[in-house]
Amino acid sequence: MFFTCILLFLHIGAKANGFYQSDTLKNKVGIDTIKSPKIDSLKTDTLKKNSKKGEITDVIKAVASDSSFYDTKNNVMYLYGNARITYGEKQVDAGFIKVDYKTNTIFAKGKTDTLGRFSGLPIFKDPQQGTLTADSVYYNFKTSKGRIYQVYTEQDGGYITGGKIKKQANDEVHLKNVVYSTCDLPSPHQHFGIVITKGIATKNQIVTGPAYMVIEDVPIPLIIPFGFFPKPNKRASGIILPQVGEDATLGFFLRDFGYYIGLNDYWDMTLKGGVYSKGSYETNVASRYTKRYKYSGNVFLSYSSRKFGVEGTPEYEHPTKDFRIQWSHSQNANAHPGSNFSASVNASTSGAFRNVPGSSYQQIVQNQIGSSISYSKTFANTPFSLSTALNHSQDLSSGRVSLGLPALNFSMTTINPFDSKDRIGEQKWYQRIAIGYSLQANNQINTVDSLLFRKKTLSQVQSGIQHNIPISLSSQILKYFQFSQSLNYTERWYFQTIRKNYIARPTPTGTRDSSAIDTIPGFRRAADYSLGGSLSTKIYGIVKFKKGKITAIRHVLTPNIGFSYRPDFGKPSFNYYDSVQVDQTGRRQAYSIFEQGLYGGPGSGKSAAITFGVDNNIELKVKSSKDTTNNGIKKIPILQGLSLNGSYNFVADSLKLSQLGFSGRTFFTEKLGVSFSGNLDPYEFLVQRINGQDVGRTINRYRWQDGKLPRLTNFNFSFDYSLNSSTLGKNNKANNPPNPNSDLFNRVNAQQAEQLQQINRNANAFVDFNIPWNLSFYYNFNYSNNGLSKSIVQTLNANGDFNLTPKWKVQFNTGYDFANSAISLTSFSIYRDLHCWDMSIRWIPFGPYQSYSVDLRVKASILQDLKLSKRREYYNQF
């Protein structure tokens, strides 16, 4: 309850009977402890009591930054300026503190400076009870009685201010004229507040006299003559009141009603549901769990049945059923050193977000979702590690689902088996030989979501194991060249293979050639290997300028050449390939019996190829008075990673030269990035007209033999640019510290902050009003040419936000598809910071997902259900 912080003194008095006790104090302080009656500099006085019953046993520290004075005659200590008294984990700060050891009292208050400004309010801190602030405090540490004036404290996002509080010796707290509101200011706005004229708070209950509501400082004639509120010290279960309204498509509704179950301090559960007058319904279960220093997580399950249209129509008689499963689990890194278990599950039907009211813009437009439940372990003092995972990926647009049940990885980091731990001097060539090992195993199902749990689908599991052993050796030649050699061995284990059979299917216009694929059970292994080597170096070039701002242009050229060899594993002696008839003429075509395996199979055709490539890096060096870390010289990149790569296979029958791939990227500033890539085909492409259709193929003739440049088969260009007010320098409010009076997260403990982050309904918590504006653009251009047709895809996306006023924030997200001449899904969001309240407006103005929502709610987490909402979902079109 919100009075927990007020009971701070209950906790102090019950354990120690006050800060000091008179008899013991006289034995410890006296003239021997404080030599000087006045201390002008910072001084700390440390006291400790005997461990007798009822006496203080923790160390008491008294500190004052201005001065401290001890009146030995009256046995009184005075602390001035940033005064602090610390007792164990508890702490009292104030501008002035007076400790009277004769009357066993402590008095703390603020102070007024020469300009009449009041500062140094008493602040009480307790790690278990929280923080309490007041104008002044009078407390008897022997009788455990005290009075607090103009209190200010926070609990669960609610704030108690003003009035007078009197603490009794019997652990009771008397309240008078205090205000409970959602505003964190010392003088609250009182957009919503409750004035408690009189009340008594005990350990387990609160009893109040007359109380009335205040809105915008105006008393509302709604008076409660008395009240009785239980104050449990643990989570309490209770009913969640529903939302009542009308949906244009589904009818009148009672939505989000249910029951909250506080199972214990480590686990809770929320059950919610909704019903609609036209026959639709929904239900969901949400649960959170945590164990300090061990693990934490949450689970969400939902199911809905929605009837669209009117009674008698197919849409109404066959309702749309959707489900969604989410599970997140994280383990503390120190819980089990060397091993980790984590889970991130997100699975649903394709319409789970589109058909559910309140889905966000990001949820509606997403096409891919995935899940992973994984366990990993590193074996101490060994190079071995093990990981296993259950994986899931889903395409919401097509309904395709892929499940890994489960995936296993066992690996050994690269070791030097011929090297010695006691070696002295440089490594010999054979000591640089490095060997690694990895094992991958998986069971996978590929299907659509509607067929996922059928018996036939579950029987079509693909299984496989793959071993990989890389062996490498690197050395330096002539000081400037890096030479490396490698041998890679791969072996795959399968429990089934395929066989293809030719089938001639009669049709009204003739016979259509097709093939049937049979699955052959049985264990089969497929092994292959390859050899390779590469040689690379770096060439530096620089042009210097004596005049002007540009001092030099630097070019780094990184050429590389290599050789690779792989045998022809398509030979009959390996028994990895078979052939099948493809037409009525008897023509046959080879195929791999492992082509449907998880890891494929060995490739056919012998390869003995030279690989070549070159990489470029070009940058400017300019004079800069702002950059003093490099003698006033700033580096500006012009091109980063401009590369060209290809290969030439000497033993291929034709088309020995591969396509030439090129790519490049650059970042002119931290806010502007440009990248491009593409492929060039050096061979001619022949197009023929067969049976009224264009058929094309690549022929073994270089284009430059006919005076032509290589054909551009694909090209991709993209850039992204972002700009905000912080990049302009002068009005950079993003680097200023946030105002603690308006920052909700700074006023709650770690557990409450974590809970608030999980409540995405509080939109204002995720809006940064300290940055006046922010803009970002992403442009993508893609060109492809397969020889028969060309296509261009060109899109521009933009998003940003800006402050209309210091309290109004507008966000937008939009884009344009140039190929289809259409605007992509566009949304606007407007946020209004009302300090202790916030207002959010979400609007999708056009397109298939037109909708809007307006929400006005309290920021306080304890009053999240206190809100006004108006919304129209995208399927509620009038």
From TrEMBL:
<dbReference type="InterPro" id="IPR050218">
    <property type="entry name" value="LptD"/>
</dbReference>
<dbReference type="InterPro" id="IPR045659">
    <property type="entry name" value="LptD_2"/>
</dbReference>
<protein>
    <submittedName>
        <fullName>LPS-assembly protein LptD</fullName>
    </submittedName>
</protein>
<feature type="domain" description="LPS-assembly protein LptD central">
    <location>
        <begin position="206"/>
        <end position="683"/>
    </location>
</feature>
<dbReference type="Pfam" id="PF19838">
    <property type="entry name" value="LptD_2"/>
</dbReference>
